[in-house]
Amino acid sequence: MSSIPHFTASGGQVSNFSTDCQVYNFQMQVWSEPAFSGHPPTARAAHSCDVVNNRLIIFGGWNGKVALNDVFILEIESKTWTELPTFQHSPVPRNNHASTVLENRIFIHGGHDGSKWLDDLWALDLSNYPEQQPTWHRLQPSGQPPAARACHSLSRVGGKIYLFGGYDGSRCFGYLEILDFDTLTWIQPSVSGKAPQARNAHAMTVVGRQLFLFARI
After folding, report:
1. What is the pLDDT of residues 98-137, one digit of tens each?
2. Domain architecture of the chain: domains with CATH
3. What is the model's pTM?
4. Distance between CA 217 and CA 107 in Å, rounded?
5. C-alpha span between 22 and 33 (Å, rounded)
6. Residue 215 and residue 204: Cα distance in Å, rounded?
7. pLDDT of 140-162, one tens digit each?
8. Is residue 81 within 8 Å of 35, Cβ to Cβ?
9. 177 burial type by CB count under 10 A (0-12 exposed, 13-18 middle, 19+ buried)
10. DSSP codes of every residue in the chain
11. Which residues of 115-135 are buried (b: 16+ CB within 10 A; e: fewer)?
């Protein structure tokens, strides 16, 4: 499954909340829904899905009634799902948070817990998995942290994480904030050019050393 580039989509909401996991084969230009074993994620939307060491990691989301903070790992080679045991120290349940990966860690910021907007920053360290269970760490960088929000984006370029957009219940955000991992400091950069209009629920991805932003205002 890993010898040919693939794109994987998991869960989401159509008319009901979904549990399916579908794979797009870039070479064949074909969608498929492989058979998976193990313990798959329960139905949800507004979760995060990241890849670390050829493993797909699902965190959090919304099941139509409550926010979630469980973690599921898909071993891509064996097509096997595992639900991680309950953590003693972990983020509160949330949906519409933002996530990105740096080395063997997944970074989670913000989101909504069903009643309030969140501004916390967490890292899930998978460096020693599966020999040791992953561990959550709450990070508290110096500098001015981003305001509480959901439906924003986190993108890693080099040793920095770029946060953009989002919504806090009353307004959308339209500026970049950068977390510098060399100093573990939040930075509000001065940028030139015509800035994008404030927005939430957009998509942003990295190509080389450029950020590409698309849609939703």
Report:
1. 999 999 999 999 999 999 999 999 999 999 999 999 999 9
2. 49-214 (2.120.10.80)
3. 0.91
4. 24
5. 5
6. 9
7. 999 999 999 999 999 999 999 99
8. no
9. buried
10. --SS-EEEEEEEESSSEEEEEEEEETTTTEEE----EE-PPPSBBS-EEEEETTEEEEEEEE-SSSEEEEEEEEETTTTEEEEPPPPSS-PPPBBS-EEEEETTEEEEEEEE-SSSEEEEEEEEE-TTTTTS--EEEEE--BS-PPPS-BS-EEEEETTEEEEE--B-SS-BB--EEEEETTTTEEE-----S-PPPPBSS-EEEEETTEEEEE---
11. eebbebbbbbbbeebeeeebb
The residue length of the chain stands at 217
